[in-house]
Design a protein that fits this description.
Oligomer: single chain
Order of helices and strands: EHE
Mean pLDDT: 89
Number of helices: 1
Structural class: alpha+beta
Shape: elongated
Number of strands: 2
Strand order of the largest sheet: 1-2
Low-confidence stretches: none
Amino acid sequence: MPQKFFMVWRHDTPTTEKRHPTYVLAYREADRIARKHPGYKVYVLEATDYRWVQEKPLAHVLF
């Protein structure tokens, strides 16, 4: 199982990048962002699982 982490995302923005190791740290960051941008919803997201697929190597093609 992956190590738990949290991310903060402001509604109407395309991405989020920073991982927070605890809910409390993510909550504080969400509060900071919400105060900086009144009227916007700021979410604390918890990573619960992941999926990863290894790409198959391309077959050798002769031209």
